[in-house]
Amino acid sequence: MSTWVPISRTELEDWIETLPLKGKGHLQPGKAGVYLLPLSESVAVKLSSTIGSSDDAMGRGEASMQLSLISLVTGKVLNKKAQGQTRFHRTTNWKKTWKAGFDRMADAYLKSQGFYDAIAEIADRDKWQQDVLTAIESVTGWQEQPILSDFHRRVKEGGILTIPQQNLLEKLLDKLQKLPVKPPQPTADAELLVRLRTLWTKAKDMGNSWLVDFVGNVGPQVKAGRPLSPRQKEVLEENFKRFGI
Fold it and tell me: Which residues of 101-132 are buried (b: 16+ CB within 10 A; e: fewer)?
């Protein structure tokens, strides 16, 4: 049968000092028995104890402690599965069992550190996803950019970009959005070119040098996708009709 023991605030805080933290464990503002144990600048283990403002343990045998992995930015729980054991009781070997619980949380964080550091910064995941997709899609030809298309696919499928990936995306977007936008290349009217070649042949067969020269000048213009003047169009239509082209 387990033996229940009281734990003072001093004992609890002394134990917290032995944990491998990335910063100093501290009380959550406004919470007498809730401590934040930082694993990084944005992620922490939240320790909720039944230590009250009187610095004494609650006298009930069921008094306990709970752990959760949270964001220091938003305060949201990041992974309920990492919690494992929901309650850690005040037994004589509490330091050992509570440390095992903390280690499990820290190990879950370290195995996916990039993911947790990134998601801890996101207050609204749906909005973040839409903002990233919109930013990528604002770049002309983003589908041909390997990094952009990969990030777009990852976020579209519900994934999260790590902090280094988000920094890389920002730099790449900044660079690409500053490049001059190339105007769309004009395309030649293939059908018109066929009709022009037919007209040129007929004009040459008839010895109409003026029309041969006219068509010879219009042809390169059409190939380059440059628009014809109203007068050029008028002359062509007259001769297409004349020769039944």
Answer: bbebbbebbeebeebbbbbbbbeeeeebbeeb
